[in-house]
């Protein structure tokens, strides 16, 4: 049976509490008091740093999620709308010719996938990005949209988390919700950050000072030792959070840059349709190549958005590192192509 999650603040209070209930010693020794104060300070400092990084990391992941939702509900939606107007489209091999896109992993049924993703994102963003339900933006940031939200049904708003996004302890803790309080729909469990247990392990054997005054000083030093162990675990968790935040920021930056190119391409597509109509056979070679460039950008957008930042255990995915490298290279090659 999993050990219940205990919030860091409770852990600190338990691990380095005073002499404990029932202690009737006449007076604490000065040394024991100072040692306990030192222990409390060690944990308080580590907890403050951890909570600061937790909040910053959560904000970064939410920002990434909102960026994904915004792109899907606007840029991707516009692309699908205009591309579906085209008739007799014949794409050449260059449309999927950028090697980096093959490694990112995009379905062959790109248009249908984009249409589905866009539909879901529009539902999610219908009330505005600022009013997203608890955890939705973070779930979109941490995972692919299909992993974060339930399947859309006609006319039904998408608001609840599902699958791994609904049961991931890392997301719950990042958002400030203790598992015991049902954060992000979780009733209990353990929190693991990159293999570092940052929750229950800190609560194991929570210290209570001995009721016998002659043991008070020894208990104080035991508290100090436990406090240092707790602080080390918190510091390790802080380091992992920092790495998650940096990866999230890089993915957000990449998506923003790709979307800038995507928007320009969509405007070109709209212009071609306005000037020439919707029959592919009526377009010039340059116009066809310009449209194919937009398709390549759509593939890249899809590949990056579908790349999860975290896995089911709350660890940074290797795939996200690969996509950062291949995605940036693919973007540079798309930008280098001739623009209509």
Straight-line distance between termini: 62 Å
How many strands, which pairing sense, and closed or not: the largest β-sheet? 2 strands, antiparallel
Quote the beta fraction.
under 5%
Q: Quick check: average pLDDT?
A: 72
Percentage of residues in helical conformation = 55-70%
Task: Give me the secondary-structure category.
Answer: mainly alpha
Tell me the strand order in the biggest sheet: 1-2
Shape: elongated
Roughly how many Å is the radius of gyration?
Answer: 26 Å
| String of helices and strands | HHHHHHHHEEHHHH
Number of helices: 12
Could you list the spans in which at least 5 consecutive residues all have pLDDT below 50? 1-28, 149-159, 161-166, 177-212
Number of strands: 2
Considering the chains and any ligands shown, give keywords for the structure.
single chain; 340 residues; mainly alpha; two-stranded antiparallel sheet; 12 helices; 2 strands; elongated
């Amino acid at each position: 049976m999993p050990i219940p999650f205990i919030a860091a603040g409770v852990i600190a209070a338990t691990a380095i509490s005073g002499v404990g209930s029932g202690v009737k010693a006449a007076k604490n020794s000065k040394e024991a008091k100072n040692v306990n104060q030192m222990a409390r300070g060690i944990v308080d400092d580590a907890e403050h740093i951890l909570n600061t990084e937790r909040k910053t990391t959560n904000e970064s992941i939410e920002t990434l999620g909102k960026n994904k939702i915004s792109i899907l509900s606007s840029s991707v939606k516009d692309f699908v709308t205009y591309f579906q107007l085209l008739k007799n489209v014949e794409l050449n091999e260059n449309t999927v010719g950028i090697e980096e896109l093959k490694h990112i992993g995009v379905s062959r049924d790109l248009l249908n996938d984009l249409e589905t993703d866009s539909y879901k994102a529009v539902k999610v963003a219908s009330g505005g990005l600022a009013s997203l339900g608890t955890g939705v933006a973070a779930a979109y940031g941490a995972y692919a949209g299909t992993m974060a939200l339930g399947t859309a049904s006609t006319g039904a708003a998408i608001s609840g988390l599902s699958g791994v996004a609904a049961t991931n302890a890392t997301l719950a803790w990042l958002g400030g919700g203790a598992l015991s309080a049902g954060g992000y729909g979780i009733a209990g469990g353990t929190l693991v950050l990159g293999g570092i247990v940052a929750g229950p392990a800190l609560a194991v054997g929570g210290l209570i000072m001995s009721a016998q005054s002659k043991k008070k000083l020894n208990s104080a030093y035991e508290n100090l030792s436990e406090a240092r162990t707790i602080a080390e675990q918190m510091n390790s968790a802080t380091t992992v959070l920092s790495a998650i935040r940096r990866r999230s920021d890089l993915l957000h930056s990449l998506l923003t840059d790709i979307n800038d190119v995507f928007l320009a391409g969509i405007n070109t597509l709209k212009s071609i349709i306005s000037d020439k109509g919707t029959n592919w056979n009526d377009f010039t070679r340059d116009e066809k190549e310009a449209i194919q460039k937009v398709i390549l950008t759509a593939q890249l957008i899809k590949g990056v958005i579908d790349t999860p930042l975290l896995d089911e255990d709350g660890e940074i995915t290797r795939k996200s590192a690969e996509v950062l490298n291949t995605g940036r290279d693919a973007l540079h090659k798309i930008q280098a192509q001739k623009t209509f």
